[in-house]
Design a protein that fits this description.
about 270 residues; alpha/beta; 8 strands; binds adenosine monophosphate
């Protein structure tokens, strides 16, 4: 695609089931790219055996209409064979992918890293756009581009939220109406901890605040996988908050697993 285009090629990688979070990335990309490509690929290698690959929402016609409404030039929707046929290579990113999502979803970031490298190369992108909602994914992609000397610029965009604060996600569609009404507590709790951490002066205080956040969610029957303060680049846990660190959370409501985060700005 780069060869066919004279200018700057932008890529917004997605798994489809598009929502306004995805469209925001595309609108931002549209402003600075000559050829804008959106990939639509539900990547099997980033799903664990008991995850939702089979039932992940798919509606290519709707996605295609939404993407063209914000000026996407090319919808790149390869099938699994076109992406992986006969491949035996995968990309392993150590360190930044070890904890949190990486620990709970073994192999997830190997799948993400591999497909991201492949999509960059297949599209010939000069710049790629990612959402900070998937904070650890952003850290992994940053690491790949640095470590493999890739000639691509990266852009990261703030999380787009529903009016009640719930981070937009294709997986929100799985929530029952009762769980949907409880889900905004995740962002409310992140915001509460964000305020409290401004005052935290010691590791003990930090841990207490994080523990209190986790408890708020557990008291409302969320199954919390983690609720932690991390360095946003390395994803290492922190015990004294600093500017640019993030509070990250993963919690399950019924069968739906939601992730979110908030970045500390002082
Ligand atoms: P996905 O289709 O879930 O793989 O997401 C594709 C891209 O959209 C990733 O870079 C996500 O981080 C980003 N994204 C997903 N949800 C949001 C959101 N609510 N706000 C901003 N970006 C998002």
């Amino acid at each position: 695609m780069r060869a066919a285009s004279q200018g700057r090629v932008g890529l917004v990688p997605t798994m489809g089931a598009l929502h306004d979070g995805h469209l925001t990335l595309m609108r931002e990309a549209r402003k600075e790219c000559d050829l804008l490509v959106c990939s639509l690929f539900v990547n099997p290698t980033q799903f664990g055996p008991n995850e939702d690959f089979g039932k992940y929402p798919r509606d290519e016609t709707r996605d295609s209409e939404m993407a063209s409404s914000v000026g996407v030039d090319v919808l790149f929707a390869p099938n699994v064979d076109e992406v992986y046929g006969g491949n035996t290579t995968s990309v392993l990113v150590k360190g930044v992918s070890d904890l949190w999502e990486g620990a709970l979803r073994p192999g997830h970031f190997d799948g993400v890293a591999t497909v991201v490298c492949k999509l960059f190369n297949m599209v010939g992108a000069n710049v790629a756009y990612f959402g900070l909602k998937d904070l650890q994914q952003c850290a992994v992609v940053r690491r790949i581009v640095h470590d493999l000397n890739m000639r691509i610029e990266l852009r990261f965009s703030d999380t787009v939220r529903e009016s009640d604060g719930l981070a937009m996600s294709s997986r929100n569609a799985y929530l029952s109406s009762e769980d949907r009404s409880r889900a905004p507590l995740i962002y409310q709790t992140l915001s509460k901890c964000f305020d409290a951490l401004r005052q935290a002066k010691s590791p003990q205080e930090t841990l207490q605040i994080l523990h209190a956040g986790k408890t708020i969610l557990e008291d409302e029957e969320f199954a919390v996988d983690y609720f932690a303060l991390v360095d946003s680049n390395t994803m290492e846990p922190k015990d004294i908050p600093g500017t640019g660190d993030s509070i990250i959370v993963a919690a399950r409501l019924g069968k739906t697993r939601l992730i979110d985060n908030i970045q500390l700005v002082y």
